[in-house]
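User: I'm putting together a teaching handout on how sequence relates to shape, and I'd like one worked example. Could you take Sigma-70 family RNA polymerase sigma factor from Claveliimonas monacensis, show the sequence you're using, and then write out its predicted structure as tokens right after it?

Assistant: Happy to. First the sequence, then the structure tokens directly below it.
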Amino acid sequence: MAHRSGGTDLTQEDEIFEKLNKGDPAAAGELAELYYGDILRYCLFHVPDRSLAQDAVQETFLRVFRYFDGYTHRGNFRAFLYKVAANVCIDICRKKTWEPMPKQVPFEEKGLKEEEDREDFRRLVELLPEELREIVILRFSQELKLREIARVTGLPMRTVQSRLRKALNLLKQELERREEP
């Protein structure tokens, strides 16, 4: 792994940004590849259709690279990318009118149980108010740390913590309600 002058390790992201700064044409593809799966999972929670989610991911990276000259890398690229993806998903949802999601979604891909669990999680999270939903998705679907969630949402860290606590309490109550005979 490459090192900075202070002896600290560079992240894979930092190494890719160094390549970008040196004009390496393959670096943009490496950056997109590094985050493609994460952004796709994120978009799947915000648009009801896999092909639209894939379109949202492509549009996210197109927007990021279109305005890349204005971005200064300070180690917060992941948070920046989620902000762009959130805006793209909002734009897509404004343009479309959706039919309600079917109760039973057929999955033909490998990992049927994983997909069913993800769909159960999605339906449960949809019950939350929007301000709580986004935090839960970023924390548990995207596995972002609270500090990263604060950057993505623009909220103070304590607000993120309290909203996450409130969301978890509401989800717990809903699960308990569903388990009652």
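A couple of points you could highlight for students: Residues 8-99 form a domain with the Rna Polymerase Sigma Factor; Chain: A fold (CATH 1.10.1740.10). The chain has two domains: 8-99, 100-181.
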